[in-house]
């Protein structure tokens, strides 16, 4: 009996040790995309670094988060203009129903950005989800619209963004985040992948 349990316990201990090191490199957690880059010998581009720049009169440290520069996409023509317009709204705060630089919601950002390029699109994310041809997640291109649910596995669309870059390094998209306002994020993050529902390519 003991001779049967001992190998099993050793195997479990080895597995536990491996699990703790999964996606860790240089003592830091890395995303799946960063791990692939590291294995290929490429550089990992940090999403942002926090730097202490001073101390407030109260004694609290003043921190600034420096975001990585936006990657250059391959969009051309009208879609390049739409992406440029959307990026001009970065930092605009989230406002449900908002359609101005004072505040935007996700579908409002896209409606304004396409509008600046002379293209009229529907207002709501549900209407935008059928304004185009379905695209597989593996075939995304800059300008494609990506749709998400409120929770992992949900099939009810509550959020929309637009792909800005799609290349060997991954897919980035711009959207109006409820917490950060208009911002670009990686589609490969666990948060967005778990909520991804569908993508469409606009009919221009």
From TrEMBL:
Keywords noted in UniProt: Hydrolase, Protease, Signal, Thiol protease
Lyase recorded as keyword: no
Keyword Cell membrane set for record: no
One GO term of the biological process aspect: proteolysis
PROSITE patterns the UniProt entry points to: NLPC_P60 (PS51935), PROKAR_LIPOPROTEIN (PS51257)
GO molecular function: cysteine-type peptidase activity
All copies of domain NlpC/P60, residue ranges: 76-203
Domain of life: Bacteria
InterPro entries: Murein_DD/LD_carboxypeptidase, NLP_P60_dom, Papain-like_cys_pep_sf
Similarity comment: Belongs to the peptidase C40 family.
Protein's recorded name: C40 family peptidase
Source species taxonomy: Bacteria, Pseudomonadati, Bacteroidota, Cytophagia, Cytophagales
């Amino acid at each position: 009996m003991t001779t049967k349990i001992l190998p099993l316990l050793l195997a479990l201990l080895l597995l536990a040790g491996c699990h703790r090191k999964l996606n860790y490199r240089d003592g830091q957690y890395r995303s799946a995309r960063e791990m692939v880059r590291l294995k290929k010998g490429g550089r990992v581009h940090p999403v942002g670094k926090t730097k202490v720049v001073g101390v407030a009169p109260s004694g609290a440290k003043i921190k600034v988060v420096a975001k990585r520069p936006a990657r250059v996409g391959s969009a051309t023509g009208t879609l390049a203009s739409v992406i440029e317009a959307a990026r001009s709204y970065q930092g605009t705060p989230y406002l449900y129903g908002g359609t101005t630089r004072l505040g935007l919601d996700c579908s409002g950002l896209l409606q304004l950005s396409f509008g600046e390029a002379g293209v009229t699109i529907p207002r709501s994310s549900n209407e935008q989800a059928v304004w185009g041809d379905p695209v597989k997640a593996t075939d995304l291109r800059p300008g494609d619209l990506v749709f998400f649910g409120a929770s992992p596995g949900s099939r009810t669309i509550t959020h929309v963004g637009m792909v800005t870059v799609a290349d060997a390094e991954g897919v980035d998209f711009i959207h109006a985040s409820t917490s950060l306002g208009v911002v670009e994020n990686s589609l490969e993050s666990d948060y967005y992948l778990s909520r991804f529902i569908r993508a469409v390519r606009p009919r221009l």
